[in-house]
Amino acid sequence: MMKISGFWIGIVLMLAAGFVLAGVADNQFLFFAGYVILQGLIMAVAWNVLGGFTGYVNFGSAGFFAIGAYTAIALHQFAELPLLVLIVIAGIVCGLIGLGTGYLTLRLRGVYFAIATLAMAIVFESLITNWDYVGGSAGAYVITPAEVPFFDSFIEMMFILMLVLSLICVAVSRYLSMSRMGRGLASIRDDETAAECMGVPTLRLKLISTTVMGVMMGVAGAPFPFFVTYINPLSAFDLLIAVNAIAMPMIGGTAVWFGPVIGALLLGTIQQIVTVTISSELNILIVGVVLIAFVALAPRGIVGLFQDFARKRREGGK
């Protein structure tokens, strides 16, 4: 009899809970907030595949998100393809760009790599701003259908879609972390020179990491124009989106696959509560304050705090 792990049971339960929520909830803001949180979760998981697993801090992740969004815009204007097809193509395009940019930048290390990725994002933004076919600096509108099959509203369908995509990305991240490839990525993070001396194919593993990161960022970005219905370079390359992609895994914990999930759910929920009760303008302030607090008091994130607490309990018991 085949044994099913607790992880896959949790995946099924989360998916079932999402469909139950879609069937019983009448408040459309729940689906709006849920979509935003899950979008941040995918970006956090994607950033962690490179920044957490290999230790290569990437400041240009929002660029891949925007490329995914504008790939969907360009294809939608060209042929009005189904949204699922747009997501798949955007993921492939961003994965290939991730592979190419990784080949150009991954020979750099530390702050030099971080600056190079930031420069790449600036280049992407400049290109999109001057690309008139997708609206350029003026932006572009997307008309969403008033009714969708099997769902009461379009935003409800978008929430379920983002839930499915986020669960897939979490499953891929977990596989990478627990596989032989994940051990190779961890060795790069710990000591890349030693890993090379031991025969670890560091460049190949890093290129795989950047490709997977690009695919996930593209998948997160492709539905974005249909969610907001209007997109321009300022919204696609928004500072809050870029900072959240970095802050969420750092708050949750970057060394493990479930750290970004914890950080995204916690920080995303706080931001949505503040948006409703106070003002959305405070979200970037909240990210900064929480991130500074964790960097100063818990540099390994929430997961690191629990690991330290568990270790102290074991040592106390002995």
Which features does this protein show?
two-stranded antiparallel sheet, mainly alpha, 318 residues, 14 helices, single chain
What does this entry look like structurally?
By secondary structure, the chain is mainly α. The protein has one domain. The chain has a two-stranded antiparallel ribbon. The model has no long low-confidence stretch (mean pLDDT 89).
Quick overview:
With 318 residues, this protein is mainly alpha-helical.
Question: How would you summarize the topology of this molecule?
Answer:
Elements: H1 6-24, H2 28-51, H3 61-79, H4 83-105, H5 111-129, E1 140-141, H6 154-178, H7 180-197, H8 202-221, H9 224-228, E2 230-231, H10 233-236, H11 239-252, H12 259-277, H13 283-297, H14 301-317
Antiparallel strand pairs: 1-2
Helix pairs in contact: 1-6, 2-6, 2-8, 2-11, 2-12, 3-4, 3-5, 3-8, 4-8, 6-7, 7-8, 11-12, 11-13, 11-14
Q: What is the average per-residue confidence, as pLDDT, rounded to a whole number? A: 89
- Global outline: globular
Count of separate structural domains: 1
Strand order of the largest sheet: 1-2
- Estimate percent helicity: over 70%
Could you tell me the strand content as a percent range? Answer: under 5%
Query: Low-confidence parts lasting 5 or more residues at pLDDT below 50?
Result: none
Task: Quickly count the helices.
Answer: 14
The largest sheet, given as strand count, sense and whether it forms a barrel, is: 2 strands, antiparallel
Structural class from helices and strands?
mainly alpha
Query: What is the number of E strands?
Result: 2
The topology string of helices and strands comes to: HHHHHEHHHHEHHHHH
N-to-C CA distance: 39 Å
Rg over CA atoms, rounded to whole Å, is: 20 Å
